[in-house]
Amino acid sequence: MSKNPRASIEEDHDAIKEVLGRMQTITDPQVLLPVLNELRGALSEHFAREEEPEGMHEIVASMAPNSVASLQNILAEHEVFTQRLDRLIEETRACVEGPQAGILRETAELTESLHDHEERETALFTDAVFTDLGRSS
Ligand SMILES: [Fe+2]
Ligand SMILES: [Fe+2]
Fold first, then answer.
1. CA-based Rg of the chain, rounded to a whole angstrom?
2. CA atoms of 53 and 22, how far apart (whole Å)
3. What's the CA-to-centroid distance between 97 and ligand 1, angstroms?
4. Is the pLDDT score of 132 beyond 90?
5. Residues 39-74, buried b or exposed e (16+ Cβ, 10 A)?
6. pLDDT band at 123, cuts 50/70/90?
7. Cα–Cα 20 to 30 A to 81, which of 59, 71, 89, 114?
8. HSE of 111, CA atoms in CB hemisphere, 13 A
9. What's the CA gap between 82 and 62, in Å, rounded?
10. Any idea which ligand is nearest the CA of 71?
11. In angstroms, rounded to a whole number, what is the distance separating the alpha carbons of residues 131 and 118?
12. How do the residues of the chain divide into helix, strand and coil, expressed in percent and rounded to 5?
């Protein structure tokens, strides 16, 4: 890549901020799941870029050598974020494939049987009217 590491890292930060902004507005786990996976992909690339020797380490070591220890602490947080996100993805998937899938299936079944019920009532009414017409004519 021709871009310098710092520009790439800052570009990543903008892209991640955009995904986080979208994530905040989502209330449906089914919609959330692909966005969490998108964030997972973006973060794993981004963390790798920051952790490369020529990534943040070189930038900080050359510009602010006193901050190298702080940088090590910050980079150590990557693993924690990755684990938290993996856990959240698993919980969201369990919800979408478990309780949420059950709710959607039950909603579809209820809808179908209620339609059927109403149709049988309508047929019954129609029969009754025809029977009545037949009697009065
Ligand atoms: Fe970052
Ligand atoms: Fe980072």
1. 29
2. 32
3. 32
4. no
5. beebbeebbebbeeeebbbebbeeeeeeeeeebeee
6. very high
7. 59
8. 6
9. 28
10. 2
11. 20
12. 90, 0, 10
Q: Is the dihedral of CA 36, 38, 41, 45 positive or negative?
A: negative
Mean pLDDT, the chain, rounded, equals: 93
Residue 53 has what pLDDT? 86
pTM for the full model?
0.83
CA of 8, nearest ligand number: 1
Of 76, 67, 60, residue with least CA distance to 6 = 60
**In this predicted structure, what is the pLDDT of residue 1?**
46
Which parts of 25-98 fold into alpha helices (H)? 29-51, 58-63, 68-97
Neighbours of ion ligand 2 (CB under 5 A): 50
Question: Could you read off the pLDDT of 26-55 as tens digits, one per residue?
Answer: 999 999 999 999 999 999 999 999 999 888
CA of 31 to the centre of ligand 1 (A): 25
Q: Measure the N-to-C terminal CA separation of the chain; round to a whole number of Å.
A: 89
Split at pLDDT 50, 70, 90, the class of 137 is low
